[in-house]
Amino acid sequence: MFKFSKKICKFIESYLMIQIMKRSSTFIPLIIFVCVVSPKIIFAQTDRITPDIAKKIQFRVDSAALVFKKKISQRDGDSPEYLQFALDTFKIECASEYAMDYDYSTVGMNAIMDKATDEYDKLLNKYYKKLLAHLQGDDKQTLINTQRAWLKFKQLEINLIGTVSQTKYSGGGSIQSNLNTEAINEMVKQRAVALYGFYSRLQNN
User: Fold this and answer.
1) Res. 96 pLDDT band, cuts 50 70 90
2) What global pTM score does this model have?
3) pLDDT tens digits for 31-78?
4) pLDDT at 104 > cutoff 60
5) Is there a contact between 140 and 132 (Cβ–Cβ < 8 Å)?
6) Which of 8, 56, 60, 133 has its CA at 20 to 30 Å from residue 160's CA atom?
7) How far apart are CA 22 and CA 48, in angstroms?
């Protein structure tokens, strides 16, 4: 099975550090904090996460959220919008890893990954609407057309993911469903980050 901690590091480095901010000196402390120090913040409900465990997780969620927010708020030069985006993505990534500590079954991992994908989809829609509100005239239609094209691409990509995971191509195994949900998660995540990146450019002008 894939290691989720490596996914977190990869995401923070390749997307937030390179695609959005491109300021490695300010982001190194955040990468270290996410991958090494931080507890997890939110969680996905699965059959193995009992109500009692859920309460314990929520307590750590609330505590860790306050610590993380305080830490990133101490950096100079970051906009409030960026700080919120960093906090939101931090929660999603760390929540997934933490939930897998309680349920690392194939079904559980898929449910957790689907939950993370849903959260990234919410961020995607949030920054799509923000970006659309800032564009003027015909430029709005450019974004609308682009997003419609991406949604078509997303469905075709999901179809391809399903195709290559068939036993006759992949060799089968329960890991194929994990790889499928991970691939879909990565696709939605990239789009959410991209839309935030466009929006943050407008904010900085």
Assistant:
1) confident
2) 0.76
3) 434 443 333 334 444 567 777 777 776 677 777 778 888 888 888 888
4) yes
5) yes
6) 8
7) 40
Residue 140: CB atoms within 10 Å: 14
Contact in structure between 101 and 47 (CB atoms under 8 Å):
no
Q: Does residue 69 contact residue 31 with C-beta atoms inside 8 Å?
A: no
Determine the distance from the C-alpha atom of residue 52 to the mean position of all C-alpha atoms in its chain, rounded to a whole number: 26
Rounded Cα distance between 84 and 110, Å, is: 27
In the chain, alpha helices (H) = 4-11, 24-32, 51-73, 80-102, 106-134, 138-164, 167-170, 175-204
**pLDDT 10s digits, 75-94:** 888 889 999 998 898 888 88
3-state secondary structure (DSSP) of residue 38? coil
Residue of 68, 77, 81, 55 whose CA lies nearest to 29: 68
